[in-house]
Amino acid sequence: MEQSNDKKSRYCTRCTRAIKACLCDYIVPIENRTPLYILQHPNEVAHPKGTAALLEASLLRCEIHVGEDFSRDEWLNVLLADRSCRYYLLWPDDDAISLVTLRQQVENESPIRTAVAFILLDGTWRKAYRMLQSNPALACLPRIGIGAIAGQYAIRKKPFPDALSTIEAGYHLLSRWEGESERYAPLLTLFNRLNTQWQDFAEGRRV
């Protein structure tokens, strides 16, 4: 747990929660083989019910970049210009391919397989769509989907049953792609703790 110097806010700079609600004891470092980049809408920064910071704190190869229009950001241009890695955007639409199809494509590459990395958008569906439309480089990326999964994000309103929190999306994406669900199980434990924490708080307010 790392405390902020701001005594009025008193929050943990690692999990971004208030000190009394710190979740760092539940964060388990995970060495993900596949890099993950999270583009986060500014409204989600330090949101008490957000999960991107928890995902970044758990994964050793994960970065959060905050913004809405990344079209002029040098880091993104440099990243996507790297021909030694192929970047895929997690975006479940009709153009998205499955992880099975992606695996077949990668295995058929010869003689050298190109590395793979994933990009997630962190924000409400409306804001995430706006981010996608504002960034042509992102809109042009090949898209992947992870299928219909019943999300367990009980503490925020979901636009549809299959909507996932960022940490849920990261868990299902990486565990399925790398085929190691046990390695990534601590992500769900952390996520469930967040859900329980908020539900307990809500019940306490009703008493």
Task: Give the secondary structure arrangement, pairings included.
Elements: E1 36-40, H1 52-58, E2 62-66, H2 74-81, E3 85-90, E4 97-98, H3 99-108, E5 115-122, H4 125-134, H5 136-139, E6 143-145, H6 166-178, H7 181-206
Helix pairs in contact: 6-7
Task: Note down, in words, how this protein is organized.
This protein has 207 residues and is an alpha/beta fold. The chain has one domain (30-206). The protein contains seven helices and six strands; from the N terminus they run βαβαββαβααβαα. It has helices at 52-58, 74-81, 99-108, 125-134, 136-139, 166-178, 181-206, and strands at 36-40, 62-66, 85-90, 97-98, 115-122, 143-145. A six-stranded parallel β-sheet has the order 2-1-5-3-6-4. α6 (166-178) runs antiparallel to α7 (181-206). The longest helix has 26 residues, at 181-206. It starts with 35 loop residues before the first strand and ends with a helix. The model is unreliable at 4-8 (pLDDT under 50).
CA-based gyration radius: 18 Å
> What's the number of domains?
1
Helical stretch count?
A: 7
**Averaged pLDDT:** 86
Q: What distance lies between the first and last C-alpha atoms, to the nearest angstrom?
A: 30 Å
Order of helices and strands: EHEHEEHEHHEHH
Extended strand count:
6
Shape: globular
What is the beta-strand fraction?
5-15%
* Unreliable sequence segments: 4-8
Key traits:
7 helices; 207 residues; 38% helix
